[in-house]
Amino acid sequence: MQWYWIVVIAAGAAIAAYLTLCIVIAMRVLKTAVTPVAHTLDEARVTQAKNENMDFADYDSEWNKQNFEVNGVHGKIRGEVVFNGNAPYSKVAVICHGHTWNRINSIKYAREFYRLGYSLVLYDHAYFGQSEGDFTTLGLYEKQDLNSVLTYVRGVFGKDAIVGLHGESMGAATVLLELGVRDDVDFVVADCPFSDTMKYYRELCTDLTHLPSFPIVDVANAVSKRKYGYDFNRVKPIDAVAGSAVPVCFIHGAADTFIRPHHSEDMYKVSASPLSELHLVEGAGHACSFKTDNAGYRKIVENFVVKVENNLTQLKKVS
């Protein structure tokens, strides 16, 4: 056998081995994204009590809670409304949890809004907690489910109530995507969101595998589109932000290596609202800004919400 045939065969074998490796990695990436480990409500309580030193006394015995469910894209979406004070209720905050978790993880954020006089809506995204669904799509179908939740919220609290959204990670991407769905949201607090799913997956793939993201992410996307109807290219929160005048408070851990801070920075730059803010929390990793600087986080949220409320009051006076 001539030497060049040996080279060709060896090169072909190497390419085949590399492509096989890429396919294996792509399938693992997709599985982790759309069918991850989903924690139960009880598991979330244990984790929050241990890692966040959370006490659930107010949630368990003081908050006036009412369960609800709405029809989502792939089944029932379940959660609870927390009524603050006595009717009429003039403002409500809807809190969206992150990947693998459920509404129990939203309680720590919800408390600040409750303190500011807001009623609360906490719910489980499809596939997580007590909601139905066989997979998650990190915002694609979740924004439609949130739309159903918000329609329910408007039915309960009325068209004149102030409605704010708060989301963490996947939940943050979801609440930002919602800005491209409806125009009756008054403000958003987005904690460590990604701006563009394809860009995010490419960054994450390279960081975790030290391999080029092509063709790994592209194979994962092709399978995802065929199996789940989930096209990574269709989930771009930055486009929704750019097309909306709703004020957004971006909060991101400066030390976040899972979703890099530039995602929030990029979206802040295109936000059309002069009331939008960007806060990078020093020393905070992914979804850890609240834990890293609890007092600072709560103050950021309070100042932003009060600013938005004052602006809404002025707009009503003018009209």
UniProtKB/TrEMBL annotation:
GO-annotated biological processes: proteolysis
The Peptidase S9 prolyl oligopeptidase catalytic domain, residue ranges: 157-301
Pfam families: Peptidase_S9 (PF00326)
InterPro entries linked to this entry: AB_hydrolase_fold, DNA-binding_regulatory, Peptidase_S9_cat
Membrane spanning stretches: 6-26
Keyword Hydrolase: yes
Superkingdom of the source species: Bacteria
Keyword list, A-Z: Hydrolase, Membrane, Transmembrane, Transmembrane helix
Protein name: Alpha/beta hydrolase
